[in-house]
Amino acid sequence: MKCSVFAPSHITGFFEIKDNKEPLKKGSRGAGIALDKGVVTNLQLTEKDSPNGSNIEVTINGEKDQKNTTITHKTMEIMEAKYKINHLLHGTQLKIDHKVDVPIGAGFGISAACAIGTALGITKLLQLNLTYNQATSIAHLAEIEMQSGLGDVVAEVNGGITLRIKEGAPGVGVLDKLLPKNKDLYILCKSLGCIETSEIIGDPGHKERINQTGGAMLNQLLLDPVPKTFLKLSKKFAENTKLMTPEISEIIAILQEETMGASMAMLGNTAFAISKTPETSIENVIVSRIDEQGCRYI
């Protein structure tokens, strides 16, 4: 049996951390954009020659990657605790390969995309009696537990330029999205490397600056719900939270002149812009479109 799931990558422009003792209700408010580049998770389930136990192999782009497959194993661990999937996997071999076409750890929400692909894929392969929101909520729980993200799962489920009105997992959080008048927009990204998400959202100083800056921005965007306002607020957020590096600041300044606006991906050492054309003077940029559909079986 085989199954494939696509989850768009997601760039957050600005956000506010919202804590809650219940993980399904914990998350972030804010705004971000889903890209048509992301993660295709391919799962294959076969019977083993020997019926003893199960054999699980997880790879990224066909290669073993212990660090970046942790979120996949955490997702399966949660599914085992809730739905006893190991019993259903007994005597089988499960292969999970994540095909990733954007940088990992650079603010593209790849851990969330891998978790979504794992949860939806296993749900289909094992024919679990779960709804779409119930399955994708498992990915949210994995993200919260790993401190690898707060709002990427619901945004990738939704697609588009997503407004996270109320924090929480799919089915718990409240979402809206912008409706750009121009549908032929490009997302231009230039990544210079990684930022460890857990070091930012788990740090009291960073958290205070993030919430002081991002707390009122969502309401400002709702008053003028267009991409240019989203970009303007995102740039202000990156500057005021002091998360922007000088190198990224230089790239943003160039993109600002060439596009509708630019800012820094939260949380990653990556500049992004929304543009009416794919052209830019910046070399080696990632060019994509807005993904309006959200994660789905393919």
From TrEMBL:
It comes from the Archaea. It is an enzyme of class 2 (transferase). Its EC number is 2.7.1.169. It holds the Pfam family GHMP_kinases_N. It catalyses: (R)-pantoate + ATP = (R)-4-phosphopantoate + ADP + H(+). Residues 78-160 form the GHMP kinase N-terminal domain. One of its GO terms (molecular function) is ATP binding. Phosphorylates (R)-pantoate to form (R)-4-phosphopantoate in the CoA biosynthesis pathway. This is Pantoate kinase. It comes from Methanobacterium lacus (strain AL-21).
